[in-house]
Amino acid sequence: xxxxxxxxxxxxxxxxxxxxxxxxxxxxxxxxxxxxxxxxxxxxxxxxxxxxxxxxxxxxxxxxxxxxxxxxxxxxxxxxxxxxxxxxxxxxxxxxxxxxxxxxxxxxxxx
Length: 111
Hints:
- The chain has helices spanning 7-24, 45-57, 76-88, 97-103.
- The protein is mainly alpha-helical.
- The chain is globular.
- The mean pLDDT is 80.
- InterPro entries: AcylCoA_DH/ox_N_sf, AcylCoA_DH/oxidase_NM_dom_sf.
C-alpha cells in the first residue's frame, strides 16, 4: 500500500523547483521557452541539449529515480509537481524525454 505525501511538503518542493526553473530560464535560455514541443522536436536542439545536461547535473531530470542513479528520489506527488511547474514555466521540451524516463541518464551524460 502506498502512502500519500503531505501537501505542505509537496508545495515546498514545488516552490524550490519553480524557483530553480525561473532562475535557469533567463538570458539566452529565455529564448528556449516553449521550444521543442510536438512538431518542433528539432527546434534549438543543441541549446536544449546543453540545458538538459545542465539540469541533469543538478538532479533536475529523472526526478523520480533514486539519488544513486542521478534522480532525486521524488514521490509521485513531487513528480507531478515538477511536470506542472515545467508546463507553467513554458520550459523547453527535453531532447530525449522518452529515453530519460525509460532508462534515465547515465552518470557520464550528467558530467
